[in-house]
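Progress against Task 2.4 (sequence-to-structure conversion) is shown through the following example record, which the project officer requested during the mid-term review.
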Amino acid sequence: MKERQRMTRRGILALGAAGTGGLLLAACGVATTQPAETDAAMPEKEAESAFEPVTIENCGVIITYEQPPQRAVAMAQHATEVMLTLGLQDHMVGTAYLEDPILPDLADAYSQIPVLSDTYPSREVFLGAEPDFIYAGWVSAFRDEVAGPREALLELNINSYLAHANCLESKATIEDVFTDFLNIGKIFGVSERAEAYVAGKRERLAEIHTITQASDAKVKVFVFDSGDEAPYTAAGTGIVNALLEEAGGINIFADVEGGFATVNWESVIERDPDVIVLHHASWSTAEEKIEYLKKTEALAALRAVQEERFVIVEFTATQPGPRSIDVIETLFQGFYPE
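Structure tokens generated for the chain above:
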């Protein structure tokens, strides 16, 4: 099984919100300055001539936008899919870090955007796209060798936004997903589009809640993200933990701080999960993980392995974006198949 390059993207949890906390960034005149999940198409355009300056607080950083960004780069697939869901491909000059196949409804729009890198681009490549805005999926995008710190970007007239669930300032919730759509809508002058999208998702989530909250019984869940000798799993304050809770599950490592954490197999065995959620991605497939669980004697004895209580989800679906409500439903169906 491949080990993920954890130090090159969202795994850099030790960075915390370094470089993003307590900044007041005024971005005046920066630069020249379908939806996923089979939803009805977003409106073609909203009148950007009516754009009014908007101030956004995001992960401790406050930025005022005098006009919508025109040359945006999305760093992470879920960030890209948020923008495409809102019909903002004409505002994009780059995308990076595709983890899974793009959502079918967004494929045509995605094909119009230059791919800067399969993973993170170098800072030289990023700046070469002449961006006026970066939407980062993880704080690691703001490392010196990638886009650079947010305050340094502002000095170059490049505004920035970080997926709210990955701020690392507080426990993530499903509301963080909605916050991203609404904030990106405000930043790009498509608030009505974003509000309509979020309203539809809230309705769907409410329908799911009527089912998930009907029972007091909760299944214990282990998330197997990657790793052989030591598993990398969802910890208690990240968006994956929030999705598990929304689906009526209990994360067996909810007591561990952070979005993700490296644990040990002894703890997994001791906590004896009812269900194992497997993240599927090119760098660590679900099939590889199932094979590892079954061929390792101590792990093969787990009830969840013996009963093949596996729920497979694409990694991108577990990150804040247009797949979030779908994955809650997928998880629920896997947790409570009857």
